[in-house]
Amino acid sequence: MREGEGVSLAELVDERRGLEELADRLTAGDPGSRDVVDAAYRRWFGLTCAERRAVGDPGAWLADAVRALAPRPAPSGPVDAPGAADTSACRVLREALVTLSPAERAQFVLNDVFGALPRGPRSRPVPHGEHDTVVHAVRDACERADAAGLEAVLAENVTALYDSGGKVRARTRPADGPREAARSLLTLLPPRADVTMAPRSVNGRTALLVHYRGRVAAIISLTVADGRATQLWVTVNPDKLRPWNRNARP
Predict the structure, then answer these.
(1) In whole angstroms, how far apart are CA 218 and each of 4, 8, 112?
(2) pTM (predicted TM-score)
(3) In this structure, is residue 228 part of a structural domain?
């Protein structure tokens, strides 16, 4: 994988699930185990692009980070007074924030406070029928792995943005222009029997819900103008997708 191109949705989801299972084992099911995984991903994104390129097996690197961050059993002895020690989750978060630059720490706080499914930039809304036609065309092209067909429904100034929240190893840079945006989306969504896409209303407009093994693993929201998509916002942040999976099997 070249830096910035991303990986498939199945790989993102399976990698995250495997790390959560590892953290659960290491922490004996401590509720803070998910924070340990989040901290491991923050360490990953704290690397430079060159450092990430040099990692031969990112999954193994992240597993090592989880092992290093997992809370150790508390020593026996007198119990500290309330407030004298951090909870395991706070300790992990503090260690992760130390690795971030001031700008990255600010972005983390903003994402944590204001995180929600994006509505995209303000623009004049097109009729629902026009919007839905583009949504269905994007879905059909992705299902066929049709790069030319996908590029045909993307505007010349299209941008594809990937919202991972820093919690899965998704693409971090915007994909600008129809060729790069189409390639980024098809890299995320290669044809698989266990990956399906279905139109669904999100924030009052039709978006694509992408299911992987029966769970919502991504949401693709579109901004449309003149019959083409001008922006693709791909949400793969597991925290933002959790409400869509409340009734799904684990």
Answers:
(1) 18, 11, 19
(2) 0.79
(3) yes
